[in-house]
Amino acid sequence: MALCAGAFFIHSAQKQPMIFLAGYRFCKHQVTGIKTHWRCSTHKNHGCKAKIHTLEDNSIIKCYNIHNH
Length: 69
Ligand SMILES: [Zn+2]
What we know:
Shape: globular
CATH class: Mainly Beta
Radius of gyration: 11 Å
Number of helices: 1
CATH topology: N-terminal domain of TfIIb
CATH architecture: Single Sheet
Distance between the termini: 21 Å
Number of domains: 1
Bound molecules: zinc ion
Strand order of the largest sheet: 1-2-3-4-5-6
């Protein structure tokens, strides 16, 4: 979880919710049950596999903050 220290959530009425972490942006990708999956914003362009899983209360339960860019 140390890699996830400092993550913060952006909730905006106009834009997609996002997580900022260590200079990277994560976009909301999928909701499965109580879990929300977030992917690095460059996933589509670079195939980056970094991801974060959160619960409804925004607690981070999984963090893979390894980027290929
Ligand atoms: Zn990335």
